[in-house]
Amino acid sequence: MKKKLVGMLALSSAFLLAACSNGGGDDAEGGGNGGGDTVELSYVEWDTEVASTNVVAQVLEDMGYNVNITPLDNAVMWEAVANGESDGMVAGWLPATHEAQYEEFGDQVEDLGPNLPDAAQLGIVVPEYMDVDSIEDLDDQVPDQEIIGIEPGAGVVAAAEDTVDTYDNLSDWEVTPSSSGAMTSQLGSAIQNEEPIAITGWSPHWMFSRYDLKYLEDPEGTMGDAESIHTMVREGLEDDMPEVYSILDNFEWTEDDINEVMLEIEDGTDPEEAASDWIEDNQDKVDEWTADAE
């Protein structure tokens, strides 16, 4: 499979979408009736969404479609689906993480429901070797008194900022936004040297398989309850591409499934190859997703 860059201009604001094509060209062959039609999927570059989007893209390719997958910021991803530049995404964290985006764009997209139900958890995460078990007991365990976050505007960052504002013992603490990759890099370095660190964490994520970590108890509930990851599609997709719509509507898997793909990618496997490996090992589940399209 080859990758290419595709520029797309939004109708409501000027932004450039860097589309990574999983497609094999106009002559792509598959087991379905895609006939070389192109499907545009968007996602946010979190490990969970890299895994799920590549799996869904591979399934659609196997059905005969060309698929472009485009990494975007949270708000732009939602906007792209809302204005029809993207056919859909499998990356909607609800009700908390993408609450702001859902409030802005929710009435302009179709929610196909959870593809990973009640499996997503947010929280303040520390290495198991740190002698603290609750947010309300954080003091000077982390010398810089900071919580390392991911991208600014992400729901987990906003929740962490609310946490710092709510807990009296965190009055001198701050949340430092970075990126998902930068955060996990800092986490790995700290653990390698057995140094203290606090991060904005979420499950599912490969870091819980790689490292011995724990969520801090959250008696004030500021980090929220368990979330689900939803599939969102543009209005009109069911009429325009009924096969694609049915596959996206049927797409649902488990935390073990997504962890398997994420960990393989983190171990160095190309995301497309990791997706193909998982599909090969889980064809029965994939057949359930494509049953209505065949």
UniProtKB/TrEMBL annotation:
Q: Which organism is it from?
A: Tetragenococcus osmophilus
Q: Where is it localised?
A: Cell membrane
Query: What spans are recorded as compositionally biased (Acidic residues)?
Result: 267-281
Q: Where is the signal peptide?
A: 1-18
- Please indicate which superkingdom the organism of origin belongs to: Bacteria
InterPro entries linked? ABC_Gly_betaine_transp_sub-bd
| Chief location | membrane
Question: Region labeled Disordered — which residues?
Answer: 267-294
Q: Does the keyword Zinc apply?
A: no
Matching Pfam families, A to Z?
OpuAC
| Alphabetical list of CDD domains matching this protein | PBP2_OpuAC_like (cd13639)
- Name it: Glycine/betaine ABC transporter substrate-binding protein
User: What keywords does the record list, in alphabetical order?
Assistant: Cell membrane, Membrane, Signal, Transport
Spell out the PROSITE patterns in the cross-references: PROKAR_LIPOPROTEIN
